[in-house]
Amino acid sequence: MSSVTVRVPAKVNVQLSVGPLREDGYHDLVNVFHAVSIFDDVVARESDSITVAVTGDWADLVPVDDTNLAVQAARALAKHAGVCYGADLVIHKAIPVAGGMAGGSADAAAALVACNELWGLRLPAEDLMRLAADLGSDVPFSLMGGTALGTGRGELLTELPTTGTFHWTFAMADGGLSTPSVYAECDRLRATPSRGFWPEADAGLLAALRDGDPHALGRCLSNDLQPAALSLRPALAVTLEAGRRLGALGAIVSGSGPTCAFLVEDAAHAARLAQALPERAPIRATATAHGPTPGATIL
Ligand SMILES: C[C@](O)(CO)[C@H](O)COP(=O)(O)OP(=O)(O)OC[C@H]1O[C@@H](n2ccc(N)nc2=O)[C@H](O)[C@@H]1O
Ligand SMILES: Nc1ncnc2c1ncn2[C@@H]1O[C@H](COP(=O)(O)OP(=O)(O)OP(=O)(O)O)[C@@H](O)[C@H]1O
């Protein structure tokens, strides 16, 4: 096999409850992930070494050295399998960079799947999941896709049942937010230390997902990182309010931000919102999407 292409989705967190800061610097989470139809494609071609190139709107923001998460994933896979094969990786990027939609994690998950196939390793899904968790807290979900409850630092996943399709509009901001900085701001803003406090999955939210009820889901959306993202980027409040005024069923910062996510009635509503938002909010771009979608998949 000389070339493999893997398609991988972005995520939005429909519940992100941040528990205590752990000794290892991570926070325990109740993290309800939902994969949406904004995709990066990662192409892996046979080569003597591991290299990466990036195309697409956000390409200039992505490192093309060994810090690229897709390169780190390919290296981790080769080490785990005890092989010294190479791969030229090309990332076709549509997921915003440092946007709170797990863009780098998606590319890492796609590289694991692509190189496993390209190199004929046939490693089982459990091995890829373990490697994914070592690469980053969001990487296992990028492999899995769908809708899932993440606990621990977000890497311990349980698939959640859903009905039908949820429709979304996303507003991408100019400039990213650093995930560690947003968690640090969350800790700073909390009046009392969060040690000893254990969040739980919202029963109403799980029922809304199971029943395919976007109105109920819109009312239940929650993100404990939102106050921190708004504190670091106050203009996001304007974007969220504009979406609410335009009839969104729910408006929320996606993960660590600064992308804002709007749950809407249907595809036509998503398109109207995507068209109207740029006149009313300080944003770089909008995109419509639906979820849930599968995780990293060979095309
Ligand atoms: C905000 C989310 O995107 C929600 O899904 C994730 O929690 C972030 O996941 P990620 O980008 O894969 O993050 P990682 O690469 O694992 O960690 C980056 C940094 O984020 C912070 N971090 C991350 C996950 C977590 N459960 N607690 C944390 O405090 C830590 O400072 C960590 O050093
Ligand atoms: N393949 C990659 N794609 C995007 N960013 C990458 C990649 N590899 C490394 N990075 C670096 O990771 C940083 C975080 O980017 P990323 O797009 O993963 O953020 P994010 O989507 O906010 O993450 P998350 O939602 O998982 O917290 C970027 O600023 C970039 O320097």
TrEMBL record:
Enzyme class: transferase
Residues annotated as binding ATP: P96, V97, A98, G99, G100, M101, A102, G103, G104, S105, A106
Catalytic activity: 4-CDP-2-C-methyl-D-erythritol + ATP = 4-CDP-2-C-methyl-D-erythritol 2-phosphate + ADP + H(+)
GHMP kinase N-terminal domain location: 68-146
A Pfam family annotated for this UniProt entry: GHMP_kinases_N
Annotated NCBIfam families: ispE, PRK03188.1
Molecular function terms from GO: 4-(cytidine 5'-diphospho)-2-C-methyl-D-erythritol kinase activity; ATP binding
Its biological purpose: Catalyzes the phosphorylation of the position 2 hydroxy group of 4-diphosphocytidyl-2C-methyl-D-erythritol.
SUPFAM superfamilies (UniProt xref): GHMP Kinase, C-terminal domain (SSF55060), Ribosomal protein S5 domain 2-like (SSF54211)
The entry's keywords: ATP-binding, Isoprene biosynthesis, Kinase, Nucleotide-binding, Transferase
Enzyme Commission no: 2.7.1.148
Family: Belongs to the GHMP kinase family. IspE subfamily.
Claim: Kinase is one of the keywords in the record: yes
An annotated GO BP: isopentenyl diphosphate biosynthetic process, methylerythritol 4-phosphate pathway
Active site, renumbered: K11, D138
Protein name: 4-diphosphocytidyl-2-C-methyl-D-erythritol kinase
Domain GHMP kinase C-terminal: 205-280
Pathway assignment: Isoprenoid biosynthesis; isopentenyl diphosphate biosynthesis via DXP pathway; isopentenyl diphosphate from 1-deoxy-D-xylulose 5-phosphate: step 3/6
Domain of life of the native organism: Bacteria
